[in-house]
Amino acid sequence: MKMRNIITTAFAALLLAGCSGSGMPEIKNPFEQPSLTETYVSQFADVPIPAPMSTKVSETLVTVATDGSKYGLESFSGRVDGVSLANVMMQNMARAGWQLRGSSIGVRSIQLYEKAPHYAALFFKEGPVYSSMDVWVINGVNVDILGAVPAAHLNNTGASIQPAARQSSTSAAQVTKLAE
């Protein structure tokens, strides 16, 4: 019995000595929330993305305009809390000069931003392990082009649909029919 105790003690000492060296990989806590404060820039130059989020290439479609600006959808996924992600994106977008125009935060969240002449819509969905984020960036509508809306897109009164500032005009908007 004394010999078994000596062998067990020696084995435990060797085991502990081997574990304390740098040869063992560090085991991370799977429930630990990664830092969302570090950001990177992906497809859209003025939309900061938290570092734990990675691009889902199969769900991304970004086009480049003639002036070099990019528009479209970029999808991300990461092992983060969805509500925390939505809150951090509010801070990141404000720092990047985007103005928040509306939001709803929960298990499924949405945020709408404006940075003239662009708009951004961020959609968040929280899953059991991973959260996803879709970032849509679009160009704003040129108000002057609304006068060229085809007759098929007129409202019931026969007047074209225009922003409130333009509706107060006494003359009716002239609508040109597009070639068929």
Would you mind describing this structure in some detail?
With 180 residues, the chain is an alpha+beta fold. Helix content is 20%, strand content 29%. The protein has a domain at 39-139: TATA-Binding Protein (2-Layer Sandwich), CATH 3.30.310. It has 3 helices and 9 strands. The strands form 2 sheets. Strands 3, 4, 5, 6, 7, 8 and 9 form a 7-stranded antiparallel sheet that branches. A two-stranded antiparallel ribbon has the order 1-2. It starts with a helix and ends in a 13-residue tail after the last helix.
Question: What's the topology here?
Answer:
Elements (H helix, E strand, L loop, with lengths): L1 H18 L19 E3 L6 E3 L3 E2 L5 E4 L5 E9 L3 H14 L3 E6 L3 E8 L2 E9 L4 E9 L24 H4 L13
List keywords for this structure.
single chain; about 180 residues; alpha+beta; TATA-Binding Protein; seven-stranded antiparallel β-sheet; two-stranded antiparallel sheet; 3 helices; 9 strands; about 30% strand
Provide a concise account of the structure shown:
The protein is of the alpha+beta class.
Radius of gyration: 28 Å
- H/E element string? HEEEEEHEEEEH
- The fraction of residues assigned to DSSP E strands is 25-35%
Question: How many angstroms separate the termini?
Answer: 100 Å
- Largest beta sheet, briefly? 7 strands, antiparallel
CATH class of the domain at 39-139: Alpha Beta
Helix content range of the residues, please?
10-25%
What structural class do you assign from the helix and strand content? alpha+beta
Low-confidence stretches: 163-180
Number of strands: 9
- What average pLDDT do the residues reach? 77
CATH architecture of the domain at 39-139: 2-Layer Sandwich
In DSSP terms (H or I, runs of 4 or more residues), the helix count works out at: 3
